Write the structure tokens for this entry.
Amino acid sequence: MRIFVDADACPVTHIIEQLAKKHEVPVTLLCDTNHILQSDYCEVKVIDAGADAVDFALINLCRRGDIVCSQDYGVAAMALGKGAYTIHQSGKWYTDANIDELLMQRHLTKKVRRSSKKNHLKGPAKRTPEDDERFRGSFEKMILKAMGEQG
């Protein structure tokens, strides 16, 4: 089992690193050439900048039973299709039961943006320590679940 992180602008890489180290799970952080990441524990893969280049590299690397952290519903759907566990930086698990609805919401939101001529809607609220703790608890449960299903 490995952990793969779509690490471009991911606010929880430090939490992922701490928990992965605690449970001795290898981690690969993937980012494009516009981001500089360093880690004493994680392998960092820098992918050429380009539309979805990091996403496709991550999907090519992940396997059944791995854990993928991404805020991208498309990446989550492809990872689920490969049998990986997937989690959003909020701590929400992507599952076969919720991914179709999430993809549909993304599609509808994009249509609304296009029709209103707005390119950007208001972004997410500022991240709080409670958000980090919510992610930490959820991510650790996912690690334990994935480890239990391997054994």
About this structure: The longest helix spans residues 129-150.
